[in-house]
Design a protein that fits this description.
CATH class of the largest domain: Alpha Beta
Largest sheet: 9 strands, mixed
Strand order of the largest sheet: 9-8-7-6-2-3-1-10-11
Structural class: alpha/beta
Mean pLDDT: 91
Radius of gyration: 24 Å
Strand content: 15-25%
Distance between the termini: 30 Å
Number of strands: 21
CATH superfamily of the largest domain: NAD(P)-binding Rossmann-like Domain
CATH topology of the largest domain: Rossmann fold
Shape: elongated
Low-confidence stretches: 376-388
Length: 468
């Protein structure tokens, strides 16, 4: 997990950049990435927009390109207004996934001009360059104000497929070796990644167990709740002693994982994901699993995935009941739902997992139960499902389906496109699986897309640093 810099793009951005940079004519092409920077012990460059250099304005050859001054000048103006870092990316049609001597000379000429191009001192401390080969592999580097070079350790693309381009893999292989699912290579790659698991109960404890046994290098657990006797039947690794001592679920899971993993960092956060410290910790992860039973938790994860360009896997289970003809309450089915959320596409909100009315209802139920009952009786709150407690067999199937969904995207092996599996729903009673394509859901431009940790966090005033 010794990683300093990550460059993150959405799948839509990546597809459009690849089409522009490699149009099929064998000549180099160029674009400029506008990035927001999140600095810290694990810094990220979040691509929020890009500028495609027109073919007619660039001197394009098979092994070099001359950057059009007008396009570059316009990008500097935008970056100054928006406080952005610029990454100049061009193609290598010949498939060389390394910076050439021509690239080095170009950077020595252009990068100082970028820093000097601001009317005042550049508000961005880093600018950089990148290359893309015809297969879509990307390598990037950054420069600070003194023009010192830093390699970007990891380039991530979060789309229908989740792509990882590691600088150490690039050094050892040209092009990078394909990582096979379920093999040692997958375990090795997971060992470099950080996973955030929000919720440490029924599905969350099972997800944590899978993440640990599969080999994730860092596991971050978020849950403020305590182990109780009533949930010993569905929380893996929990014991009677844990319940008697009212032990925090995250601390119990951390101890369990550390008992069989000696090469994994486990961080326990006894916090609600709606708290500032939890948001900051989760923002450093590479992938998020939502295993919560609250709409507020899903809302927060929805925002976080968009702001930090993170993949989100949300899992839910439901055991609905109905009243039979003789007046008895009976189980009608047992459902599992897995939603994969990628930045820049549909969200849990646009998929109607929650809405403003259901969020308000949940808040009212917690803050003022009497008012909630009154409004419910008057018909103001609609669509609040009454759920029977879930059981471990159903939780296991849902949690496993969620983790397998991640594997299918990070290490693709499906016969069909992953775009067809934005949502999966299974019914135990009817023994059916349904899946829904990404384009079956509406997409709206998200105001938090690639905004990073801009204050107030996630656009929520109560999470502002000024409230500390």
């Amino acid at each position: 997990m010794d990683r300093k810099w990550t460059l993150a793009l959405s799948g839509l951005q990546y597809e459009r950049l690849q089409a522009h940079l490699h149009p099929g004519d064998g000549l180099e092409a160029a674009a400029i990435l506008l990035c927001r920077v999140v600095t810290g012990d694990r810094s990220r460059l979040l691509v929020y927009d890009y500028i495609l250099a027109p073919f007619t304005s660039s001197a394009r050859e098979r092994d070099h390109i001359i950057w059009p001054g007008k396009v570059l000048s316009g990008a500097i103006d935008r970056a100054e207004d928006e406080g952005a870092s610029l990454v100049l990316i061009h193609s290598h049609p010949g498939s060389m996934l390394a910076f050439s001597s021509i690239d080095d000379v170009s950077d020595r000429d252009i990068i100082p001009h970028i820093f000097a191009g601001w009317s005042e001192q550049s508000p961005a401390r880093f600018h950089g360059s990148a290359i893309m080969t015809p297969d879509g592999a990307i390598r990037a580097r950054l420069y600070d104000v003194e023009h010192n070079e830093k390699m970007v350790d990891l380039v991530t693309v979060v789309g229908d497929d989740i792509k990882y381009f590691w600088v150490e893999d690039i050094e050892g292989s040209n092009p990078p070796a394909v990582v096979q699912p379920f093999c040692d290579g997958m375990t090795d790659q997971l060992g470099r990644l950080s996973v955030g698991i929000v919720g440490a109960s029924g599905t969350g404890s099972i997800t944590a167990e899978q993440a640990a046994r599969m080999g994730f290098g860092e596991i971050n657990l978020f849950d403020f709740d305590l182990v109780e006797h009533k949930n010993l039947n569905r929380i893996l690794n929990s014991s009677i002693a844990d319940a008697q001592e009212s032990r925090l679920k995250v601390n119990m899971l951390k101890a369990a994982i550390e008992s069989y993993r000696d090469n994994c960092t486990v961080n326990a956060y006894p916090l609600n994901i709606s708290e500032r410290e939890a948001v900051l910790a989760a923002s450093k992860c590479d992938v998020l699993f939502g295993c919560v039973d609250s709409l507020e938790g899903r809302y927060m994860l929805d925002l976080l995935a968009q702001a930090m360009l993170l993949p989100l896997f949300d899992v839910g289970v439901t055991i609905p009941t109905r009243v039979s003809t003789d007046g008895r309450v009976v189980i009608s089915d047992a459902f599992g739902r897995i939603d994969y959320i990628q930045p820049g596409r549909s969200t849990l909100f646009t998929r109607e997992v929650y809405n403003s009315e259901s969020l308000r209802a949940e808040y009212l139920a917690a803050a003022d139960p009497d008012a909630f009952r009154d409004e419910a009786a008057e018909g103001y709150i609609k669509g609040i499902a009454q759920e029977a407690p879930s059981v471990i067999a159903l939780n296991m199937q849902a949690a496993s389906a969620s983790m397998l969904e991640y594997i299918a995207r990070a290490f693709p092996f499906r016969h069909e496109s992953n775009a067809n599996y934005a949502r999966t729903i299974f019914s135990i009673a009817s023994a059916e699986h349904d899946h829904f394509a990404e384009n079956s859901f509406s997409t709206e431009e998200h105001p938090l897309f690639a905004t990073g940790l801009r204050e107030p966090l996630l656009g929520i005033p109560s999470l502002s640093e000024s409230n500390l």
